[in-house]
Amino acid sequence: MFTSLLIANRGEIACRVIRTAKRLGIRTIAVYSDADRDALHVKMADEAVHIGGSAARDSYLSIDRIIAACKQTGAAAVHPGYGFLSENAEFAAALERNGIIFVGPPTKAVEAMGDKITSKKLAAEAGVSTVPGHMGLIADADEAVTIARKVGYPVMIKASAGGGGKGMRIAWTDAEAREGFERSKSEAASSFGDDRIFIEKFVTEPRHIEIQLIGDQHGTVLYLNERECSIQRRNQKVIEEAPSPFLDAATRRAMGEQAVALARAVGYFSAGTVEFIVDKDRNFYFLEMNTRLQVEHPVTELITGLDLVELMLRVAAGETLPLAQQDVGIDGWAIESRLYAEDPYRNFLPSTGRLTRYRPPAEERDAEHAVRNDTGVYEGGEISTFYDPMIAKLCAWAPDRAAAIGVMQEALDQFEVEGVGNNIPFLSAVMAQPRFREGRLTTGYIAEEFPDGFTGVTLSATELTHLAALACVSAYALDTRSHTGPEKRRAVLIGADRWDFAVRADGIEYWLTDGAGKKLLVETGWKPGLSLAIARVDGELHHVRVDRVTAGFRLRWRGADLVARVLWPKVADLMPLMPVKLPPDLSKFLLCPMPGQVVRIDVREGDVVEAGQNLAIVEAMKMENVLRAERRARVSKVRVAPGAVLAVDEVILEFEAI
Known about the structure:
Blueprint: E1 4-7, H1 11-23, E2 27-33, H2 40-44, E3 47-52, H3 63-73, E4 77-79, H4 89-97, E5 101-102, H5 107-114, H6 116-125, E6 133-134, H7 141-151, E7 155-163, E8 166-171, H8 174-192, E9 197-201, E10 207-215, E11 221-233, E12 236-242, H9 249-265, E13 270-278, E14 284-290, H10 297-304, H11 308-316, E15 333-340, E16 342-343, E17 349-350, E18 353-354, E19 357-359, E20 364-365, E21 370-375, E22 382-383, E23 390-398, H12 401-414, E24 416-418, H13 424-432, H14 434-437, H15 445-449, H16 461-482, E25 489-494, E26 497-506, E27 509-514, E28 519-524, E29 532-537, E30 540-549, E31 552-557, E32 560-567, H17 569-574, E33 589-591, E34 596-601, E35 608-609, E36 614-620, E37 623-628, E38 633-638, E39 645-646, E40 651-656
Parallel strand pairs: 1-2, 1-4, 2-3, 4-5
Antiparallel strand pairs: 6-9, 7-8, 7-9, 10-11, 10-13, 11-12, 12-15, 13-14, 15-23, 16-17, 18-22, 19-24, 20-21, 21-23, 25-26, 25-32, 26-27, 27-28, 28-29, 29-30, 30-31, 31-32, 33-40, 34-36, 34-39, 35-38, 36-37, 38-40
Helix pairs in contact: 4-5, 7-8, 12-13
């Protein structure tokens, strides 16, 4: 085994690799950009080297700078993580030329599988089922439309060197094919430095299921079961699980054997993933092969008991795999939720800023459950505009799927993130959604189940009563602490609903009697200042995020975000008479919906625009977002120019009525 390892990446994956390398006694070396000077992976590593500016092209995508860091520190090997240079054949070859071990597959395999067009041709030759499509390069948008018509709508427009949902668009019409080609090409050039595009048939009602591989340099290649990755938004995976609730043993074996056949065809070793689209009849088609560690690898580790990073390191050092195919089993069920810095209430737009609170649930494992949190951030750290918006990967394990969902729900309830928008409410909502719990998944799940975006969760009458009771006893605890003489009767208002309670306290037990004489027992040790309340209400355990607001509390639980006003009954009687403040009229402005950089302005002052017309493109966290007109109007003023870096709600255009 080599004694030193440089991790050519950042964030949670760099921290993940560092943990295993340190356990194996390997000296770890981090690299960092200007924006990551105080990042967690820098703090965790034994040594760290600054490699350039905040933009990825000036640091993490610079082969020369990473090679220089290896030479400066004497690194014997490099683990690329995922993204950045992880599937760059030129990078793997440069390491080889400099006598540095690449912790990944051979250069020829990276080159063959890293190009999606070449990989599909090789897959077909190896007997792997492939999706119909046009595997040649596409010159321009006109040719893209011609090919899309020939293949037949809907089609998937994809970057040849793409990954992580970047450079991908689904088109159902000529207009969408034209725009999708332009956006995919631009995103691919920005993210990968390679703007080649191809088109393939989009399979309707598809599931995205992938096979994890591991191989050594002595000819052994194994498949480590599958992962279901169908819950996606903008082609970016959001929730993954292992195994798939859809596959049977025969399909799993067939997919695994085809994946192994493809790997053998290119002399593959190290960790890799073969991705398939699976239709409702369990017919499966090859999508691509990722010649690297996947973001969602923890769920495979949780059901197999293997450490994929350790196996990658041992394979890179020339060791043989310590297991055979018959040794690979499935133990229980694992689910991964990706926590992103994005606002689910604003169409999941990226959010940046400082993490004023970051308190994940405790990591633990026993025979009945496990919680794991892979992260690259810390309380007080900053989420910048330069990189992927992932905050953490929260994983749950249990003996079966229903229990794993329960473990994940409770872990999400306990996860506290403040300072940036985050998708915890949405993840919690999915866990409780009937279709998800039944395992009826497709890649269109989010669009189908949340067609109008995410607006929060509507709780049942019982759940609302439980939260009202918690708010009531929390107010009681505040009054007792301030020695103002606790008023034993309280009215709780949540929206248009009202509860009237009489309170009797005995230590951490509170007996509440409502207006109908029904009694509720609330057991909680919550004290003023605590941001998370752990309570049993009528015997049901709740973990509720609690923040004080005027005359009450903001309560966040299971995807619901509510304000509970706790008042004296006479004050509550007067509340319906209070005037309601109306929001300001912002319809005459185009506001920047997220922190980002203006890529293009498509209109000029004086132009008349129609509803749905493209107005501008803003790039945020490596994704291009097209901003469109909501109604017919005239552009009266263009406030910014391409290249401008904007904050949330900064004005881009002004309109006037016509």
